[in-house]
Specification:
single chain, globular, 7 helices, two-stranded antiparallel ribbon, mainly alpha, about 55% helix
């Protein structure tokens, strides 16, 4: 066990707390630096955040609008992101490939109570995307026939706006403080899933079919 009290001097760093729970105290001597790795916390918290996000967005009616193996994006998705000038190396796709197993398990868990959860959450992302695209085109005085071209040239900005919109809605639904980093990751994963399933971003007319 880590000792319950701590002190540091001469540039050293000491940590106290329960090694089976949270770190309670950290003291660093003059000039000392320290870093905490957040990976284990994210792995622990992500499933519950994902489930909460999926439950929230799938509760809305149709009228209202752990780390697994890396997933390889199928050819049609690669074609789609290229068509939208959206880099395969973008963080939401990196996260999606890394955490897709957690996302799938979270959907499966929520679908035990709501068979339409997956469809509703993807549709929620699609509605947010269309709303952000329409607002951006209106602000830039882009005519309707040019909306698709504008979307393809501004996909990264639009995706960020969609994530921000859904994150704000999720946060406003909670009476307790939301952990920003994990909540943002959870929202990013459901948006990335909507991109992969062709609910978000423009789809090429000659898209590869499975």
């Amino acid at each position: 066990m880590i000792k319950p009290s701590t002190s540091a001097s001469d540039g050293s760093v000491s940590v106290s707390g329960d090694n089976s729970g949270n770190i309670l105290n950290v003291n660093a001597g003059d000039g000392a630096t320290f870093n905490f790795q957040l990976e284990s916390r994210i792995a622990r918290e992500l499933p519950s955040f994902l489930s909460a996000v999926i439950v929230l967005f799938s509760q809305q009616s149709l009228a209202e609008y752990s780390l697994g193996s890396r997933r390889t994006l199928p050819p049609e998705v690669i074609q789609k992101v290229a068509y939208n000038n959206f880099p395969e190396s973008h963080q939401i796709l990196v996260d999606y490939r890394r955490h897709s197993l957690v996302l799938e398990r979270s959907y499966h868990g929520v679908e035990q109570q709501n068979d339409d959860a997956r469809y509703l959450v993807r549709r929620k992302a699609a509605v947010a995307y269309q709303s952000q695209l329409a607002s951006a085109c209106k602000a830039a005085s882009i005519p309707l026939p040019m909306h698709g071209a504008y979307a393809r040239n501004n996909a990264v900005t639009l995706i960020s706006a969609v994530i921000d919109e859904l994150l704000q809605e999720y946060k406003s639904s909670k009476t307790i403080m939301v952990e920003q980093e994990t909540a943002h990751l959870a929202i990013s994963l459901v948006v990335a899933d909507a991109v992969v399933e062709c609910e978000v971003l423009e789809r090429p007319t000659d898209a590869v079919t499975a």
